[in-house]
Design goal:
single chain, about 1000 residues, mainly alpha, Four Helix Bundle (Hemerythrin (Met), subunit A), 5 domains, globular, NT_sf, ligase, ATP-binding, multifunctional enzyme, magnesium ion binding
């Protein structure tokens, strides 16, 4: 193969005509991409089918009158590049539509309206709603074009991140919801056409069922509907029938077979007719179908009346005889009707498929939704979340099911998108090309051990097994909850009086609190006696906490977990400070009790310090790091070493969290301690893996990046790292990198093993070429890459680089090698400054979660962490070349040194530092309170009160904390706008 052919093959362009095509398009010159077309070729190479994408691009360019404009836009517009080139390699059907309407490419640019914006109005406008409504073939043609336009825009945005990884990833649930809204708009348009053609004067409501009703529609799916009419006469029947034909010819098949009596029943019925049927004749499966019923078109009042009338019938259906057995039997019948040769490839109906999730969720909804209105949700994922929140499904099971459901829906979407045909079948196992396309279209990438097909096969198998296991657990053996009760005469207060007392103390759920108290004091054991003595004091302490209900539950959990620990209750009884401190911790934090039941020895650290000695909670992090490495070094295998490191890390994490919540540590000390924990665990685990591997052909060093490199980690932070190696003993670069990659992967795998503790994620995505690049490079490979390819953002990322583990001399030499890159002698030019500002603005815009409040988002909000850190880093890139004191990985030290060097005014530095500290403290507090990472400060309620309490604010009005937060970050933002943006 020629050098050019090899280069194109690396991009996935294997057809013999590819070279001539890219050359003719002006994207290739000699044996490399033409100047200005590098990004196009890269995006082309990431497309699910690069050859198809190239052929489709040629077709589109040839069909486009403004060909030069399109070519120029592809070179300049990353959004267009990601959307268009990925789409061209993903969907032949949408490519055909685009070639037939070449001007539509303008709707895929970064400046075009986002998917879904104005889609409903566009479909209604296409058929003349609001003016003269079109009829006949003209209406169908107009609706078809408008509908396909909107699907084109949505699909392109959906898959854009495959071609341009920096673009936002649309959640599959959001895509499904937009498709359902688009279908609803199409039904509205078809309704208008049908009414106009029949000159109808009656009322017709269209009720969406199934996936459209639940706002979880596929790209290609029948849309299930039920029609309600007043009157239900021949004219309304003709309108409904015509509506189905218009929508079917233009957009999608409309299926009305879920109506009463199915195909044999009347197409339209009055509201009373529907209600009478459901009350008297409906079968179990019909109520299950009604779970997702939603008015979407036609007369809104009639549709709302239908929804109100059938809802009570749906939520009382579980009281029918043999209801659960009927639903279970229905699922079995679905499985029995699958073709045997399709059984193991069925994404929707097969074992471990989408139906397993949906049936389990719907059964739990219908059974428990009679008494819990929070479960009455049409969306599978929303309902699953509500079931987990309500305790009907374990949170881990809920997360696993939701993750699996999203993955299965993603595969289904991609397969349907390819040819816009209704399908739910995985490509056959021997169809390697088909599975490779599907894996790439789903955004999967090789993982170092397996190619894309291997990754897809593994994920598919794992998902199917996980879904089936959880389906059987929830669907056939639902967990029943039993609560034991003490006789009334053993309780000092009557039930009513005790509930009133707890309510007065601040419990939102006195009845729930009574249940915990009964459990804690039941029996005649010594432990029960001690609890009866302690609880009056503990309840008063808990009443001062932001969430007494959660605190009492946590106390019960801890007490039950430590029931066999002989010193636990004695410590609470004899050390008054321990009890008070523990109640504050349990009533504030969800993280502390989770850690405490697995690291109970930390309770001893809550005792009052011995006279003349420092508080044990304020122990130096260096002491812990030394002890951890010494202890782990005694382990003889990597698994034991990693488990020991995680256990010790749990202990230290709980110590730091307790000291933080009790106001014994400043935010700088918290971040330093958490970073020290991470570094110690990483060092010890790497040492253990290297010992087990024995002498190898390379040295390996781990470079801390991001917050790890800056010693600014929070409770929920990942460890951003780079792995660098160097061959020894005459080994080749390839041998060294291969061996070192195995070591690095082993370390990551050991640390990320499933555990109830906060995750230990080693993130190497800041490496050259990101996830698609090699995990480990040699020092010389890094040198060559940064010399040739380094982008401004990479130089900026290197500002935080510091050696944290592995070979010390190699780590030092790596840092010396990158110093000229991150600290350029001449600073950076105006164009680079502009580029950094542009990247920052894009990150702020695109990565802020939907619905987030920018004024209180700790990371991406105004005056938050990103604002301050990017400002410091810009100053470093501009001035650290000739001001060595600025060469620090610490944000706060960088601010101080900038003041000392006269680069930044003292007042500005103080405002930035205050904003950074406030955002960091708030972010840590959110993790402590919620027990999971979060960047958004709660807006209201007990979580907000708990966050304020965790930050040391007195009980009462948490609005004081919010005011302080907004004031600090607003002032920091004002400095950012002047110093960073130059406004």
């Amino acid at each position: 193969m020629t050098r050019t052919g090899t280069s194109l093959a690396r991009l996935g362009l294997t057809e013999p005509w590819a070279e001539a095509t890219v050359t003719a398009l002006g994207w290739w010159a000699g044996d490399k991409p033409a100047p200005g077309a590098e990004a196009i070729m890269s995006a082309l190479g990431r497309s699910p089918d690069p050859d198809l994408a190239l052929r489709s691009a040629e077709r589109l360019l040839n069909a486009t009158p403004d060909r030069q404009d399109l070519d120029a836009a592809l070179r300049a517009d990353q959004v267009l590049r990601g959307r268009l080139l990925t789409l061209l390699g993903s969907s032949t059907a949408l490519v055909d539509h685009l070639v037939a309407h070449p001007d539509r490419w303008h709707r895929l640019t970064g400046s075009a309206p986002q998917p879904g914006e104005g889609a409903r109005e566009a479909l209604l406008r296409a058929v003349g709603v609001g003016a003269d409504v079109l009829t006949g073939a003209e209406a169908v043609t107009a609706l078809r074009a408008a509908y396909r336009d909107e699907v084109l825009v949505l699909a392109a945005a959906d898959i854009a991140a495959v071609g341009e990884p920096d673009l936002p990833v649309l959640d599959v649930a959001d895509v499904a919801a937009q498709l359902a809204d688009l279908a609803a708009a199409a039904l509205q348009a078809a309704h208008a056409v049908a009414m106009a053609e029949n000159d109808a004067d009656g009322r017709l409501a269209v009720i969406a069922m199934g996936k459209c009703g639940g706002r979880e529609l596929n790209y290609v799916s029948d849309v299930d509907v039920v029609f309600v009419a007043e009157p239900a006469d021949q004219q309304m029947t003709r309108v409904a029938s015509r509506l189905m034909r218009v929508a079917g010819d233009a957009c999608f098949q409309v299926d009305a077979n879920l109506r009463p009596e199915g195909r044999q029943g009347a197409l339209v019925r009055t509201l009373d007719g529907h209600v009478s049927y459901y009350k008297r004749w409906a079968k179990t499966w019909e109520f299950q179908a009604l779970l997702k019923a939603r008015p979407v078109a036609g007369d809104p009042e009639l549709g709302a009346a239908y929804a109100d009338a059938v809802a009570p019938l749906v939520w009382n259906a579980a009281g029918r005889d043999d209801f659960v057995a009927d639903v279970q039997a229905m699922r079995r019948r679905v499985e029995e009707h699958i073709r045997p040769d399709h059984a193991e490839r069925e994404i929707k109906l097969g074992v471990g498929g989408l139906r397993d999730v949906e049936f389990a969720v719907q059964l739990l909804q219908l059974v428990h939704g009679r008494n819990d209105e929070a479960l009455r949700l049409p969306s599978t994922l929303d309902a699953l979340t509500a079931l987990a929140d309500g305790g009907y499904v374990g949170r881990e099971d809920g997360v696993d099911l939701a993750t699996s459901y999203r993955f299965l829906r993603l595969l289904e979407h991609r397969l349907q998108l390819q040819r816009m045909l209704r399908t739910h079948l995985m490509p056959a196992e021997d169809d390697v090309d088909g599975r490779r396309w599907l894996g790439r279209a789903a955004g999967l990438r090789p993982d170092g051990r397996r190619d894309v097909v291997g990754v897809l096969n593994a994920e598919w198998s794992r998902t199917v097994l996980r879904v089936r296991r959880l389906h059987e657990k929830l669907f056939y053996r639902p967990l029943l909850t039993a609560v034991s009760r003490l006789p009334v005469d053993t309780v000092r207060l009557s039930e009513k009086a005790a509930a009133a007392r707890l309510g007065a103390l601040g419990w939102a759920s006195p009845e729930g609190a009574l249940g915990h108290l009964r459990a804690l004091t039941s029996g005649v054991s010594r432990a029960a006696s001690i609890q009866q003595t302690l609880l009056p004091v503990l309840l008063d302490e808990l009443a001062q906490s932001p969430d007494p209900d959660r605190g009492l539950l946590a106390y019960r959990r801890v007490s039950e977990a430590l029931a066999e620990t002989p010193w636990y209750l004695r410590l609470l009884r004899d050390e008054g400070l321990v009890a008070g401190r523990l109640m504050r911790l349990l009533g504030t934090s969800a993280l502390v009790p989770d850690l405490l039941v697995r690291a109970p020895e930390v309770l001893r650290l809550l005792a009052a310090p011995v006279a003349g000695q420092a508080d044990e909670l304020r122990r130096e992090p260096e002491d812990f790091a030394t002890a951890l490495r010494t202890t782990v070094a005694r382990q003889h295998d990597p698994d034991g070493a990693a488990a020991t490191a995680r256990s010790l890390r749990r202990h230290e994490l709980l110590r730091v969290a307790s000291a933080d919540l009790l106001g014994l540590l400043e935010v700088d000390e918290v971040c330093a301690a958490l970073s020290s924990v991470w570094v110690a665990v990483l060092q010890a685990t790497l040492d253990a893996v290297l010992r087990a591997a024995g002498p190898g052909p390379a040295r390996l060093a781990v470079i801390g990046m991001g917050r790890l490199g800056g010693a600014e980690l929070g409770y929920g932070s990942d460890a951003d790292v780079l792995f660098v190696c160097e061959p020894v003993g005459g080994a080749s670069d390839h041998e060294a990198a291969k061996w070192a990659t195995g070591i690095a992967e082993t370390v990551r795998r050991k640390l990320s093993a499933p555990t109830p503790d906060p995750a230990l994620v080693v993130d190497a995505d800041l490496r050259p070429e990101g996830r698609s690049g090699p995990l480990v490079r040699t020092l010389e490979s890094y040198r060559a890459y940064y010399a040739r390819w380094s982008e401004p953002w990479e130089a900026q990322a290197l500002l935080r680089a510091t050696a944290v583990a592995g070979h010390e001399d190699l780590g030092r030499r790596f840092l010396h090698m990158i110093d000229p890159i991150r600290y350029p002698a001449a600073g950076i030019d105006a164009a680079t400054v502009t580029e950094i500002r542009r990247i920052k603005a894009r990150v702020d815009e695109e990565r802020l979660p939907r619905g987030a409040d920018r004024s209180t988002h700790t990371k991406l909000g105004h005056g938050g962490l990103a604002d301050v850190e990017w400002t410091v880093q810009l100053l470093q890139m501009q001035h650290a070349g000739d001001v060595p004191e600025l060469r620090t990985t610490s944000t706060l030290e960088g601010l101080q040194e900038a003041v000392e060097a006269g680069i930044l005014q003292r007042e500005d530095a103080d405002e930035l530092a205050a904003g950074w500290r406030m955002a960091t403290r708030a972010r840590n507090a959110v993790m402590l309170v919620k027990g999971k990472p979060g960047d958004q400060v709660p807006r209201t309620g007990r979580e907000l009160a708990a966050v304020a309490s965790a930050l040391g604010y007195p009980p009462g009005d948490p609005g004081v904390f919010l005011d302080d937060y907004r004031r600090a970050t607003r002032r920091a933002r004002a400095v950012v706008e002047r110093v960073f943006y130059g406004w």
